[in-house]
Amino acid sequence: MSSTPSRVFLARMVGLPIFDPQGDQVGKVRDLVVALRSETSQPRVLGMVVEVFGRRRIFIPMTRVTNIDSGQVYTTGLLNMRRFVQRPTETLVIGQMLDRDVQIRGSEVRGTVYDVAMEQARTRDWVLSRVALQEPGRGFRRKGQTHVVEWSEVVGLTRREENQGATHLLAAIQEMRPADAASMIHDLPPERRTAVVAALDDERLADVLEELPEEDQVEILEHLDTERAADVLEEMSPDDAADLIADLPPETAATLLELMQPEGAEDVRRLMSYAEETAGGMMAAEPVILAPDATIAEALAHVRNPDLTTSLAALVYICRPPLEPPTGKLLGVAHIQRLLREPPSTLVAAALDDTLDPLGPEMGIDDVAAHLATYNLVAAPVVDEDGRLLGAVTVDDLLDHMLPENWRDLAPRPGVRRG
After folding, report:
1. How would CATH label the architecture of 169-277?
2. 11-23 confidence digits (pLDDT tens)
């Protein structure tokens, strides 16, 4: 194990895995908590905000951190699984200090904070020691000059800003997977969350919204202007958009559906016509659908789409035209394992499995669960009374509906002891 470096820049720690003494990963670093005292006195680093199983965020005191190196953090292994709640006297480094406008003391140099470094003092406490700031750019596409200075040389770090930017916080969030970005945004103070949401492009915001709890989705959407809210909904998968619109006031929902593109709005309305706890209400409306004369190579190209979940990529649905739900008659499915064993030039019809019973859109959640469990499936087609494909229910859709709304708060990580 390498020794802990004398200086650690904190923006680079976001996402680092955290291990116990046995080498088992117990979580990921999401932020660091400090106690600000004054602009000349180095703040003490109290601990880390750590994401464990189920996106639960807990607090690990720095006294429990035994080692930090370039790619990982080690702890004593004894963790308190109580959810982290920020106190009024505490400041989040990533969530609240990045993008703060500051000035170098005794000079005209101004800029925004893009990183902060910590070091161990003689007392063995970790303190914030350096501030990395960037001046505003001058001229077309020119980045401003950067500076790394002592904490005491910077003015403006301890004051709160109502109109704080989000450039550098956004850069950290853009590097995360949508689920991790959603977790970060969920725990931001309201004013910082607003700034980040405003800066995200529609596609990225749609990806993040799909991973947020329903109350966060509704709150964020209600704070967008209606035109942008409709654009973001169009970027979401139809089933997630339908679930979100169903949680909005009826007048707001009607307005947004009118503003959406007709094809997207039609898909959402169709999904909203089914009860929530049914196959129709849970299904994804955009599985991989191909005609029987498509080749294995075409099928594999479709399932390689990185936007597909693992369960949606497990099956290709073979239908007669038209190929947009509701399609022509469903002929069967092709399993990914079978596709991988066939020559690429072979037609998908040669890999067809027509023995898989489809689900009806009104089938209840317990029957859907029993069907997937009985046949060891991660997904199953949903068809109407004429055998036309309407969509597919995946095991992750099923779990989203079967688990309690607050399951992330209730599920401790197996093997992690409570402190």
Report:
1. Alpha Horseshoe (1.25)
2. 999 989 999 999 9
